[in-house]
Amino acid sequence: MAERFGGYQNEIYLQGLAGTTPAFSTDPTTLDGAASGVLTPEAYGYVAGGAGSGATMHANREAFDRWKIVPRMLTGATERDLSTTLFGATLPVPVLLAPIGVQTIVHPEGELATARAAAALGVPMILSTASAHTIEEVAEAGGDGPRWFQLYWPSDDEVCASILARARAAGYSTLVVTLDTWTLAWRPQDLDRAYLPFLKGEGTAIPLSDPAFRARLPRPPEEDLPSAILQWVGMFTGTDHTWEQLPLIRKLWDGPILLKGIQHVDDARRAVAAGMDGIVVSNHGGRQVDGALGALDALPGIAQAVGEKIEVLFDSGVRTGADVLKALALGAKAVLLGRPFVYGLGLAGEEGVRHVLRSLLADFDLTLGLSGHRRPAELSPAALHRD
Ligand SMILES: Cc1cc2nc3c(=O)[nH]c(=O)nc-3n(C[C@H](O)[C@H](O)[C@H](O)COP(=O)(O)O)c2cc1C
Ligand SMILES: CCCCCCC(=O)C(=O)O
């Protein structure tokens, strides 16, 4: 029988009998507040902050709140199977960890702890190009866990080829190319503190360890970090790629490729036309375009237009099991969890990420069953009502 993720609920109640409670609350209304108590103000501001007025971050939550689940009864949903198939691989749950850079700003073990937590549950971690640890180190930490890699597409094609070759050699199966952050948006929380982690070398481990990147440097980063960082800034920000250049990525990666940051139906259609295997409907958690539409509002139209042709994944604002259910019902095949796992990492390292993930998955499992469904594939817009 498939693992019953909802069983985490019983595990927690049993802990209560033994006189213990979880290390921290995963209540989505208080989790980020708890994290703010342990992170530096700079790190917390960087993670929690959004672009401009924060309107898009709010729109992400408002979009979820407009949809309500309509539970069905007597459907025999006691036994459930949450597994889902993506690109020929079976995942235990339709949830992945979103690519999040610079995780060492919240915990010294950063991506290594996250990789271990994700692998323990069989959940793919999408490793960011802006990782604080190298591709190879994170692969080793994740052991047999499923590995996806996220590309920030550098302006230098040889560096791009080298990074992707390393990811492939290290066993990463699936590539996510993020399109919405070719330069950083106006982020008041960071600007008020004049804080950008990359300028201190945080989150630059992948290029700085890359032979093709190092070949561009006047001196090795170990001797002259400021020059290496300047080179990083020049190569990874302010880039000017267009749809016409996507064939290069296809040439460099022989596995599935998804484009992340899609919010318009026409861009989704272009992804299909470009031969991509999937997209992630996402507004980067409201960190890029202030005033953009809530990501969930973009999902149904996009899923309807291209969902039969490519895999449609979703992120931006997922906080609860109900949110996972709503996104799947509106056409996503799987969702990416973002900020909540970073808060878990900050609060309790590997165990914190595991606690956040297991709580979300148990919540999703129970919500799925209690609303009358046995499998994610049974979900459709008919499971929801829009206010
Ligand atoms: C601190 C932080 C760092 C991020 N770094 C990356 C990154 O390196 N690559 C990327 O594609 N997205 C990155 N994202 C965006 C996430 O992948 C995801 O789209 C976003 O967190 C979803 O919004 P949510 O966390 O509010 O649900 C980052 C987000 C945060 C909060
Ligand atoms: C090339 C831009 C690097 C940004 C990496 C972190 C990120 O995505 C974020 O939202 O912050």
TrEMBL record:
SUPFAM superfamilies in the record: FMN-linked oxidoreductases
FMN hydroxy acid dehydrogenase domain sequence ranges: 20-387
Binding site for glyoxylate: Y46, Y152, R187, K260, H284, R287
Residues involved in FMN binding: P99, I100, G101, S128, Q150, T178, S282, D315, S316, G317, V318, R319, G338, R339
Cofactor(s) this protein requires: FMN
Superkingdom field: Bacteria
Catalytic residues in the record: H284
Gene Ontology terms for molecular function: FMN binding; oxidoreductase activity
Pfam families: FMN_dh
Keywords, ordered alphabetically: Flavoprotein, FMN, Oxidoreductase
InterPro entries for this protein: Aldolase_TIM (IPR013785), Alpha-hydoxy_acid_DH_FMN (IPR012133), FMN-dep_DH (IPR000262), FMN_HAD (IPR037396), FMN_hydac_DH_AS (IPR008259), LMO_FMN (IPR037350)
Sequence similarity: Belongs to the FMN-dependent alpha-hydroxy acid dehydrogenase family.
Protein name: Alpha-hydroxy-acid oxidizing protein
UniProt organism field: Amycolatopsis rhizosphaerae
